[in-house]
Amino acid sequence: MPIIKRRREGAPWSTPSQWSSNYGKKDGPAKEYHDNGQLQFEGAYKYCNKDGPAKEYHYNGQLSLAGAYKDGKMDGPAKEYDNGKLTFEGVYKDHERWEGWGTEYRNRRQG
């Protein structure tokens, strides 16, 4: 996968990103990084949209989300984390939590 240097609006953004390309479009396995070098996204693209199993990470490098995308939208079982602790486990449909198919853990002590 090539390393691509991108620019954020008005400022240089030298954070490396790695992905496969199909006619200049993101297509295939991908890794994207926060500007501090920590991994931000690990998954795949299909025709420029996130597609398939994916993991996303907080700025500090801890896991933020483990789930799957379909046509650029969260779709299917997912787990969300904050400070290393599970905060939500459920199902997404068209990038929204599917009502009635999840458990929120924010107010519970976790051992």
UniProtKB/TrEMBL annotation:
Q: Which SUPFAM superfamilies is this protein grouped with? A: Histone H3 K4-specific methyltransferase SET7/9 N-terminal domain
Composition-biased stretches (Basic and acidic residues): 24-33
Region feature (Disordered): 1-33
Top-level taxon of origin: Eukaryota
A Pfam family assignment: MORN_2
Q: What is this protein called?
A: MORN repeat protein
Write out the biased-composition intervals (Polar residues).
14-23
Organism of origin is: Vitrella brassicaformis
The family database entries (InterPro entries) matched by this protein are listed as: MORN_2 (IPR011652)
